[in-house]
Amino acid sequence: MKLASYRKKSPWILHYNAGGCNGCDIEILACLSPKYDIERFGMINTGNPKQSDILLVTGPVTKRNRERLVEIYAQMPEPKVVVACGACASTGGVFRGMYNCEGGIDQYIPVDVYVCGCGTRPEQIIDGVVQALAILETKTKELEESVRLNKEAIKENKQLNRRNIADEIKPVYT
Amino acid sequence: MNNLWVPIILIILAPLLGGLVYGFERIIKARMQRRIGPPLLQPFYDFLKLADKRKMIVHSAHAFLGIMHFVSLWFALAVLLLGGDLILVIFLHLLSTALLILAAYSTRSIFSHLGANRTAISILAYEPVLIIIAVSIFMLTGSFDAAAAFQSEQPLLYKMPLAFIALLLVLPIKLKKSPFDVAEAHQELTGGVELEFSGIFYEAVYTAKWIDYVFCYALVYLFAGNNILLGTGLIVCTFFYLNALDNSTARVSYKQMLRFSLTVSFSLAFINLLLNSLT
Lengths: 174, 279
Prior knowledge:
- The complex is a heterodimer.
- Chain A is of the alpha/beta class.
- Helix content of chain A is 33%, strand content 13%.
- Chain A has helices at residues 3-7, 23-31, 66-75, 86-91, 122-149; strands spanning 12-17, 44-46, 54-58, 81-85, 113-115.
- Chain B is mostly helical.
- The radius of gyration of chain B is 18 Å and the shape is globular.
- Chain B starts with a helix and ends with a helix.
């Protein structure tokens, strides 16, 4: 399809902070600044999951945050990609193993691109988003094939859901 | 015959023209901030992308009202360009905005409701001024028809400069430009009334914004009479004025917007009407 080639030219970004320290968020906003100017790729920072293509998540998932994260992911229409920004979002970072956090966002939603660093550099974020665009294109093709040939869109589930999302927050001080 | 073809072509090409205006506006905005900015055809890339997204609707009436907003706005533009009644044009534009407000109220999202409230308030701010301007045009040309204004030998601008200034002051409210962009307010309401639309239904609302540009510039052109050169000059000046204002001011609250519009813009238009009726 010809429409699929235009998708790469206008990815709209949704940015969500899943309980991070705000360092990576500042770097993401720096991408919009005149120095890095992410808008030249046609990217807009929308605050609206219903109209966005790329989900940028920062921070380890705190237990208060996980339901919102999954809900925001579910509200985005397909095709969509998820970019985990920073060490916390990728693995849990320095918060890994603490009583109020989980180890990274890939425990809850499928992640396509991991961007390392604490905090990430704006150059790395732009590189990660550009890589995400390639994934977005292949995802679009898969989706179109699945519609046209009437077959399953997701062939294999590589993601590990290590925890049950609906788990209650248990008290730690006993 | 020649006179009829120009508006018809303009009406058919209105979304295309509005998209180009919007794309150019984004480039100008980027250059004012010393950025490179998106390509000129960026709105059309967005358009094609949105056509391809999965459609998630809240309920069918909501999506239908969004599409009707687009259709009625295009119809209002057609009536204006074909030289219809100005009062009718203003009320058709009001109808299209009212449909969008209804759509926003029909969802359960709090942001959508807030956006609908603020859009209703912004109608209260710009609508009286537009009606006063239409009445002033009636005083001068003896007819409410836009065709009479388009064909007048002497440009209306020379006879009603205060009304033109009043129009320039309400255009940012209509186009949701800073400092009067409380209705859209991307940082606090994330779009307001258009929040719950997605996929191809958001496209209707997105394209309606482009048609709104053509509508507003047609209103500006109304002041030039049959002088095409003056009309083009007015449109270019208005474009740069709107962008300079948008990029150099911060958002005011809705109360300040309403107070400013109903005291300054409305009185300017009203003084103009009084002067026109005296002479």
